[in-house]
Amino acid sequence: MALDGKIVITCACTGAETTVAQNPALPITPDQVAATAQECRAAGAAILHLHVRDDQGNATQSVARFKEAIDAIRRKTDIVIEITTGGAVGDTAEERLRPVKELEPEMASLDCGTVNFGDEYIVNTLPTMREFAAEFKRRGVRATLECFDLGHVYASHYLVKEGLIEAPFHYGFVLNVPGAVPYSVENLSAFIKAMPAGADYTVMGIGRSSLPAQYGAVANGGWIRVGFEDNVFFSKGVLAKSNAQLVERAARIAGEAGLSPASPDDVRKYLKLKG
Ligand code: ZN
């Protein structure tokens, strides 16, 4: 099936690093995340990119906490859940991978390389990527191949050649992380050209590049991600009232280009998710 006339919108509602001090509407608890998922689904999101927090609001890769959040979301909405394996800065590979091993979600992110992350850094060696990809394959988890750098797109080709990931391929281009690649039309084009033929991609513009990146995605036939993980503002100096407000605008922008939001079931069919 094709996604003619439709665009996939992902909401990354919480992330690992965003704080309530940055935006008081940040969803933290499983119930808050579930309510957010329901609102974002109603506003046009088909995928929820999920990080979880502990009772103190700190990022955690606790399997129990992921399960609690997933169960709460499932009681409210059919949105596709993509869990993070990026985790938070400083998590070990084993910690990052554990929720995938134990919960076997429909989708999960798979970071494709090492990169600066502000003053910190994220480490993903090729052996780590192979280990993650093999685990995803074993458990039928569709990867979003997250690339923060052009070299990451090329690194992903090893996984393809070695048969560790199979089509349909879905990339996530994370642009404008401080210390990595800024968002620009030229940079986005270079990432797109480096993908295997026929792959789809979601564009994530961090901070002030969120809005330009949404237009870039629409103009190039890509998909959109918004949410407080990437950006807490609606416009310069004005905080977003909710994640759903950002999803609503993304759907409106796509609508002006003649695209309607894909449903979770459209995504399940198109990306051949196990459901
Ligand atoms: Zn994330």
What does this 3D model show about the protein?
38% of the residues lie in helices and 21% in strands. The chain has 275 residues and is an alpha/beta fold. The chain has one domain (6-270): Aldolase class I (TIM Barrel), CATH 3.20.20. The strands form five sheets. An eight-stranded parallel β-barrel has the order 2-3-6-7-10-11-12-13, surrounded by seven helices. Strands 1-16 form a two-stranded parallel sheet. Helix 6 (185-194) links the parallel strand 11 and strand 12. Helix 1 (30-43) crosses helix 2 (63-74), helix 1 (30-43) packs parallel to helix 8 and helix 3 packs parallel to helix 4 (126-139). The longest helix has 14 residues, at 30-43. The protein is globular, with a radius of gyration of 17 Å. The two termini are 16 Å apart.
Question: Could you give a short description of this structure?
Answer:
With 275 residues, the protein is an alpha/beta fold. The chain has helices at residues 30-43, 63-74, 93-103, 126-139, 150-161, 185-194, 210-220, 243-256, 264-270; strands at residues 6-7, 9-12, 47-50, 52-53, 59-60, 80-83, 107-111, 115-117, 120-122, 142-147, 170-175, 200-205, 223-226, 233-235, 238-239, 260-261.
